[in-house]
Design goal:
The protein is mainly alpha-helical and 356 residues long. The protein is 55% helix and 7% strand. Strand 3 and strand 4 form a beta hairpin. The termini are far apart.
């Protein structure tokens, strides 16, 4: 007994006593169970089911976490370890006490998380720096892709380079084809003299093809010109300006006092030309002589003719003029009969002389 009193105090002394005190019933549980309608857990509470917390998905780009998040996770791990210990130790207790203690532990964990969040907000408000979320950090750290724009000269040079490379490849394929036809691996390179002779031959071929191309182009131009010429009837107009000079033909008729002062004045003249006579007649059909109404005069009296004789085809004004026209017509008919009879007699005499 004396040795126990003289012994120093152990560091772990009192831990079991604290655990026993925690296992005892809390007087607050009776208060929450009666005053607020009961917060005690039931065996099967179908009205409320707590959602299972999802695990945090951490990207590979963000392995390093903030100190505050690490501290919060450490606190959560400590709470989980305490929770496991209490559940292991209280497994022998009754079901009611274990549920009550579980609820108390969950409540303490929630309050601890709320305190951590409040501390974090206070620190952010004091510093004035709000840390970005992981998605925002990912967006900011992501490489910015910008559309590459090339200058016009570089694009043109690139096209030319691709064209030259294509031509070289075609040349190589052609030489390989020739070599395969000749059953040789490679075609022998020509000497300078052979290249000059081949260039002369190609020059002659190119000149012949150029001449043929020129002839084709000339034919195309002639065909285009022929197409432009319209064969349908057309009415062409052309206007021009000329000097307004006096007409010398009428100078004798003008008075000596009349003189043209402004000789240098210009006037415009418009000429209308018709390609076909039919279009001219159709356009100026009203000006034809058949459509004009001339005033007819009697050839005997010289008065305006009111009548027309269908036999003589002459107009007349009075009855006396009509009689005179008929008399003249009868005399003309007699003369024609005489001449015809004389001609008939002469023809008969000629026929008789021929028969004799």
């Amino acid at each position: 007994m004396k040795s126990t009193l003289e012994r120093e105090r152990r560091q772990t002394a009192g831990n079991r006593l604290k655990r026993l005190l925690e296992q005892q019933e809390d007087p607050d549980d009776e208060f929450y169970g009666t005053a607020y309608g009961g917060f005690l857990d039931e065996e099967e509470d179908n009205d409320y089911r707590s959602e299972e917390s999802e695990e945090d998905v951490v990207d590979s780009d963000f392995d390093q976490e903030d100190d505050e998040q690490q501290q919060g996770e450490d606190d959560q791990e400590q709470i989980d370890t305490k929770k496991k210990r209490k559940t292991d130790e209280d497994s022998d207790d009754d079901d009611g006490t274990t549920k009550r203690k579980r609820k108390k532990i969950i409540y303490q964990a929630q309050s601890l998380q709320q305190e951590l969040k409040a501390k974090k907000k206070e620190e952010e408000e004091e510093t004035g720096e709000f840390k970005l979320t992981r998605q925002q950090q990912k967006k900011e750290n992501a490489p910015k892709i910008e559309a590459k724009t090339l200058r016009k000269s570089t694009s043109v040079k690139r096209v030319e380079l691709e064209k030259r490379q294509r031509e070289r490849q075609e040349r190589r394929d052609y030489l390989k084809g020739v070599a395969s036809l000749r059953n040789t691996r490679e075609v022998r390179k020509l000497t300078q003299e052979e290249l000059l002779e081949e260039a002369k031959i190609t020059e002659e071929i190119n000149l012949e093809s150029l001449e043929a191309y020129r002839q084709i182009e000339l034919k195309k131009k002639e065909i285009k010109r022929m197409k432009l010429i319209q064969e349908c009837p057309r009415i062409c107009t052309s206007s021009m300006t000329i000097l307004n000079e006096p007409n010398d033909q009428w100078n004798d008729l003008l008075d000596e006092s009349y003189q043209i002062e402004t000789i240098s004045e210009r006037c415009s003249r418009t000429f209308v030309s018709f390609t076909h006579i039919q279009t001219y007649n159709e356009t100026f059909s009203k000006l034809n002589s058949s459509n004009r109404h001339y005033r007819r005069l009697c050839p005997i009296t010289g008065m305006p003719a009111q009548y027309f004789d269908s036999l003589t085809q002459m107009p007349y004004a009075t009855l006396e003029a009509f009689k005179i026209l008929r008399r003249i017509h009868a005399e003309e008919m007699k003369k024609q009969k005489r001449t015809t009879s004389v001609l008939i007699d002469a023809q008969k005499d000629v026929n008789l002389n021929i028969l004799r």
